[in-house]
Structures are given as C-alpha cells and as structure tokens.
Design a protein that fits this description.
Helix content is 54%, strand content 0%. The chain is mostly helical.
Length: 85
C-alpha cells in the first residue's frame, strides 16, 4: 500500500535505501524506530540533514502510519504528559 503514496515515491526516488526500509517496516512496530532514527538527532556527529521536501514527506508518512496503525503508535513521556510534579 505504501507504494501508492506520493510522499513515499518521493523519498524512495531520492533515497532508495530509506524507501526500502520504509516499505519493509510499514505496518510494523519497527517503523516507529526507523522514523526516530531518521528524524531525531541523537548522535554527536554532524549530519547534513534531508532536503526540505524529503523531510516533509517523511513527516507526512509518519503521520499517515500513525493514523493507519494507531495501536503501533509509541507513547512518548514528556514533562507535559507525565503527571503531577
């Protein structure tokens, strides 16, 4: 199904290895971890980053996945949702 989504086509065209992983993990819990690795800066090494259109497409795909597979959405704990201080 992901193959029909325009945002996926864009990412896959520009970054085929990322497109392959998105396709592989679509509909699975590992998709969330992949998106974290792609979109959240966790390394101390400078990264070039994605072109704006690819970054927007990845963000859209993350939202589409959450809507299509709500049971797979990771609950993030922050100071705003962790309860009384």
């Amino acid at each position: 199904m992901i193959e029909k989504i325009g945002d996926y086509k864009l990412v896959n065209e520009v970054f085929p290895s990322i497109g392959a992983k998105l396709k592989l993990f679509w509909g699975h819990p590992e998709f969330n971890e992949l998106m974290d690795q792609l979109l959240v800066y966790k390394r101390g090494v400078p990264r070039e980053g994605f072109p704006a259109d690819v970054l927007f497409a990845l963000s859209t795909l993350e939202s589409l996945h959450a809507g299509a597979f709500p049971k797979l959405v990771k609950k993030h704990s922050t100071i705003w949702n962790s309860g009384p201080v």
